[in-house]
Amino acid sequence: MALIHSLLAPGELAQQVGANARATRLAQNLSRRTLAQMAGVSESTIKRFESHGQITLEGLVLIATALGATGQIAELFKHEHPVSLEEIKRTGRTRGRK
């Protein structure tokens, strides 16, 4: 199985997610304190997430909920089912007996 690499390192990707959360918070005209109260996390958790991308999954879900972004979290690992015969032929057999 080949590994697929992102253009961003994991740390860089986490920082980008934190920066996106900050931009969303500011677009909604929320302070860190207000968002922390809405999400039920500490203000320092939000600061650490926005500046370094470091957060627990539970904290991420709480912040996403407060910012109205739960749909994006729910779609994170959603498996897309093929919709055409051509897509099925391209994917091939990956599991099971031959």
TrEMBL record:
One of its GO terms (molecular function) is DNA binding. Transmembrane segments: none annotated. PROSITE patterns: HTH_CROC1. InterPro entries: Cro/C1-type_HTH, Lambda_DNA-bd_dom_sf. Residues 22-76 form the HTH cro/C1-type domain. It holds the Pfam family HTH_3. It comes from the Bacteria. This is Helix-turn-helix transcriptional regulator. It comes from Vreelandella maris.
